[in-house]
Amino acid sequence: MALEVLYFAWLRERVGHPRETVTTDAATVRDLVAQLAASTPGHAAAFDDLATLRCAVDQKLTDLDAPLSGAREVAFFPPMTGG
Amino acid sequence: MALEVLYFAWLRERVGHPRETVTTDAATVRDLVAQLAASTPGHAAAFDDLATLRCAVDQKLTDLDAPLSGAREVAFFPPMTGG
Amino acid sequence: MTARVQTAPFDLAAELRDFGAGAGAVVTFTGLVRDDTGQMAALEIEHYPEMTERALSDFGAAAAQRFDLADWRIVHRHGRIEIGDQIMMVATAARHRRAAFDAAGYLMDWLKSRAPFWKREIARDGSATWVQAKAGDEDALSRW
Amino acid sequence: MTARVQTAPFDLAAELRDFGAGAGAVVTFTGLVRDDTGQMAALEIEHYPEMTERALSDFGAAAAQRFDLADWRIVHRHGRIEIGDQIMMVATAARHRRAAFDAAGYLMDWLKSRAPFWKREIARDGSATWVQAKAGDEDALSRW
User: In angstroms, rounded to a whole number, what is the distance separating the alpha carbons of residues D98 and D6?
Assistant: First the structure.
């Protein structure tokens, strides 16, 4: 399937661009992370600490074990600092 | 000694006036209340429930056991309802 | 760092102009006249003029010290106040949100049962009823 | 009952006009850019445009139900914000003060660590540092 993958804050800086279309068979967010981390050194740096990685699937906050079936957009970012 | 005695809210209404000068030998607020309650039926009605009576001596909140030596002004009122 | 008692309405925006410079968090509380029964015409507030402003100032200063406030303000009206109008306001400014929230809550809990104000509800038929203190207000104060 | 995300400054007084009609208690929180180091030029806030406003709206609605709010409003800025300027505001209106305070605190704790904003401090020399999330912000959320 084709997924829109978005990056924010220092993940975006490490990856080098804010979004990309990714073709993947990943079943979960965690599988997608593994695929992305293996793709470029920038991606590897962006995903080097899964403990601080946050994600949203189709604009809902979720976790690495979330399934991707039917998903269209996955976003990755560091812990949020709003307010 | 001569004390200025002030009344607020429904204590003022029951007593019938907002302030009066009282000559007293009362040692504590409680003694003063006993003297005042005996003075008129209005005062008696104002002081009929000591549990809800609040008082200030020289504009500081205190309780019925506060001493009156050196005091110039004593105020009586129901529980406050600010805010 | 001011406390005022007045009959005139106040303007929250004007009160907050230049309030809490350098702080990261500002919390305000505004109390409004609410008509729960549909029978009320207005609220009337009596206070103890010789005592009120100083008591408010002293307590604001105590809260400033306890919560390390950058700024605080208390404005409380007395006299007749119409339905929907503002009764009083508290504003607190601190570096972080928790202190600003806690200080505002503390000041409000104190004002409810320790500041020398007495409220009376004036009904449309002209009758007046003193507002009873709530037991919960004493409980609220014991949190601190 | 609105949530807005914008680059423009907001005016707290304008936001509160006609806010919370019929309520007895209005609480506001305003967050300001603080320069702790004396080296900061501004704050820059990035967000997730497709997600932010809806996430804020959903959470405001959840808070309204939980605390029985008469009204609520969230305004959060993004982009570059100068020292001392307002970053965001939350306002809550309820019958009683405890609900208004709790709802504002709840919304703030949520915004700090669940709303898709990321802050970056821009120093006077042009260097930029992403603000780290605080462990305390997660703890604050677990109160609710």
Answer: 30
